[in-house]
Structure formats: C-alpha cells, structure tokens
Amino acid sequence: MTGRIEGRLQELGLTLPTPPAPVASYVPFVIAGNLVFISGQVTMAPEGLKYLGAVGKDVSLEDGRSAARLCAINVVAQLKAALDGNLDRVKRCVKLTIFVNAAEGFAQHPEVANGASDLIVEIFGEAGRHSRAAVGAGSLPRNVATEVEAVFEIA
Questions:
Q1: pLDDT tens sequence across 74-90
Q2: Residue 133: CA atoms inside 13 Å, Cβ hemisphere, count?
Q3: Residue 151 is inside which H or E element, if any?
Q4: In whole angstroms, how far apart are CA 63 and each of 8, 52, 86, 87?
Q5: Would you tell me the crossing angle of helices 4-11 and 109-124 to the nearest 10 degrees?
Q6: Global pTM?
C-alpha cells in the first residue's frame, strides 16, 4: 500500500533519487528525539551536479530557484532514508536553511529559496510550512548554486 506522502509524490510526478552518500566527514542525517536533521544537500541530479556557479552571474534567478528545488528533492530523499521509507511519519517541516552561491550585489535570496520552500509545501501541505533562513554565500561546495539543510519533526 502506498502511503499518503508517496501518493502525493506520484501526483506531483516526482521520483526521489537514491540519496547520495556524504562526500566528507559527516552523516547525511541525525535523529535526535522527535527531530530529524538533514545535512546540507546540493544540486546532485542523476546525471551529476547541475546549476554550477554564482546566482546573478553564472546562474539566472529562475535557474537558482530550480537549483533550490532540486536540493529540496534531495532533502526529501535523505528524509525518506532516515525514516526507513515511511514519509508519513513526518509531522511537520520545522526549518529550512537555503544557502545561495550569490554574485556580489545579488539580493534576491528569498526568491531563490522559494524553490525549496514551495516544493516542501507542495509535498507535505500545511505540515510543510516552515521557518526559514535564506543566506548568501561567496561560494558553496563544488561550486553549486544552492545548498539546502532541513529539520523535520516526526512521529
């Protein structure tokens, strides 16, 4: 039987990838009590990294938003792994932090971050409404345009 959230993913036409393994000295998630902390996820796609460079210079605002959305897909994939495949255990998304590899003077971090925020709400509905930080960075790992970390409350 397909769970409620899995059904929603199907409605949205989303297939979660196999979560990528960490590339450094960290774990992809930590469960502490009823919270799951998802390590920063980058723009890894099946064909490799996408959306490389600084938003506002090498990457357009719209592509920056798409990059954040891709990161959020990877966040949900890690969350599914953390919950042994049962995304229906999610009670709510508590917080997203979206890092934007921003060109000097770029100031539309919130619009880029909406790519991740909107997807989480599309998937989890009201339970997906979260607090958030959208942070500009001078660079990000592997020169990706965005990186997203998250905290979820679970049952």
A1: 999 999 999 999 999 99
A2: 9
A3: strand 146-154
A4: 24, 10, 31, 28
A5: 120
A6: 0.97
